[in-house]
């Protein structure tokens, strides 16, 4: 008697293998809307601040920079300098960090097979925060102005790899073990962070707390040129890995049956998550809910296929964080609000609504 296994056809049954025409149209429409929204919001965000610059003058400055003699240059004497030395670097960093965090969240949810997963699960955020706090408290400066960012980036990577290798047993890792190990490492790093707050002076404490809440204040082009390539590598790797993530959603056994190296795929995905998240956290601090909420929204619109989900999440994350940073800069005339506070204020209620909606329509997540 010969047994047949329907899962052997998993590669052709993966969610993105054959998108229906309606799904293709919906995905294309989403990408178009996000691209337009991102471009419009970037122009608006660049013009808003203590020195308001009209959108037409912002566009004129951009056109002149690329060699097109059209449009109106900023009329204020410091307008053009303010745009290219302060505003545009911050706009670019907001988009880079938002895209990185959202793509990392989509990867995490695909690897763990759990919609509640986010980059913080593997300790990358709190590991980066702990490393940055060490630099702040002990006033380390061997790398100059890059010391905090360098320590935060390395701290996030090391913590993530530590979680992965500590959760391995007999050459394999299980999702539950990864989650529990991540919780343990998070607890240890959080204790270390609390100790840094305890022994630090008032200035160090204020800097650590503000860094934990996330901020893009003080961003310069030098930071963007470091964060952007790292995020681009992570995004490219995530897109390449998307087909295997679709197959992995069928379960480890089914994925192995069709030839997917589950352990290598999982390790690659976790390294990519660490790269993406550390690139964002190192220069912007901890920004909550972007990696958790954005993939949910995109999945509701275009479905679970990662070939669309990952790049669409990156685009939506860029737009979301750009909008959040605009609010953070302009909500109060005399203060630059922490951007992590803005994303939490929006993401918390939205995620609660999402939980209620899922429970009502599908009986919750199993």
UniProtKB/TrEMBL annotation:
Taxonomic lineage: Bacteria, Bacillati, Actinomycetota, Actinomycetes, Propionibacteriales
Entry keyword annotation includes Membrane = yes
Membrane topology of this protein: Multi-pass membrane protein
Q: Where in the cell is it found?
A: Cell membrane
Asked whether the UniProt record includes Transmembrane among its keywords, one would answer yes
- Membrane-crossing segments per the record: 29-47, 91-108, 120-140, 146-166, 178-200, 220-241, 269-296, 308-328, 335-355
> Where is this protein chiefly located?
membrane
Q: Which UniProt keywords apply?
A: Cell membrane, Membrane, Transmembrane, Transmembrane helix, Transport
**Family assignment?**
Belongs to the binding-protein-dependent transport system permease family. FecCD subfamily.
- Put simply, this protein is called Iron ABC transporter permease
InterPro entries attached to this UniProt entry: ABC_BtuC-like, ABC_transptr_permease_BtuC
């Amino acid at each position: 008697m010969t047994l047949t296994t329907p899962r052997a056809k998993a590669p052709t049954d993966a969610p993105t293998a054959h998108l229906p025409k309606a799904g293709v149209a919906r995905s294309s429409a989403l990408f178009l809307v996000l691209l337009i929204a991102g471009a419009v919001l970037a122009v608006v965000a660049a013009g808003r601040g203590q020195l308001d610059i009209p959108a037409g003058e912002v566009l004129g400055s951009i056109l002149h920079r690329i060699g097109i003699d059209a449009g109106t240059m900023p009329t204020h004497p410091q307008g053009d300098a303010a745009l290219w030395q302060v505003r545009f670097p911050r706009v670019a960093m907001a988009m880079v960090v938002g895209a990185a965090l959202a793509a990392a969240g989509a990867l995490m949810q695909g690897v763990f097979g759990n919609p509640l997963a986010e980059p913080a699960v593997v300790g990358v955020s709190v590991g980066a925060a702990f490393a940055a706090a060490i630099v702040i408290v002990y006033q380390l400066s061997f790398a100059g102005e890059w010391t905090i960012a360098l320590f935060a980036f390395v701290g996030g990577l090391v913590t993530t790899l530590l979680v992965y290798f500590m959760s391995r047993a007999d050459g394999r890792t299980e999702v539950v073990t990864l989650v529990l190990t991540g919780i343990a490492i998070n607890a240890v790093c959080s204790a270390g962070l609390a100790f840094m707050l305890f022994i630090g002076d008032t200035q160090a404490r204020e800097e650590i707390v503000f860094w934990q809440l996330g901020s893009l204040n003080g961003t310069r082009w030098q930071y963007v040129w470091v964060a952007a390539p790292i995020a681009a590598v992570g995004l490219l790797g995530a897109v390449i890995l998307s087909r295997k993530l679709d197959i992995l959603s069928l379960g480890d056994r089914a994925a192995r049956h069709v030839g997917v190296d589950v352990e290598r795929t999982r390790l690659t995905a976790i390294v990519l998550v660490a790269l993406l998240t550390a690139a964002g956290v190192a220069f912007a601090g901890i920004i909550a809910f972007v990696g958790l909420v954005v993939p949910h929204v995109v999945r509701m619109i275009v479905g679970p296929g990662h070939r669309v989900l990952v790049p669409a999440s990156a685009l939506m994350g860029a737009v979301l964080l750009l909008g959040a940073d605009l609010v953070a800069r302009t909500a109060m005339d005399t203060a630059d609000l922490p951007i992590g506070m803005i994303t939490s204020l929006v993401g918390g209620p939205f995620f609660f609504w999402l939980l209620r909606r899922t429970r009502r329509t599908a009986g919750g997540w199993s």
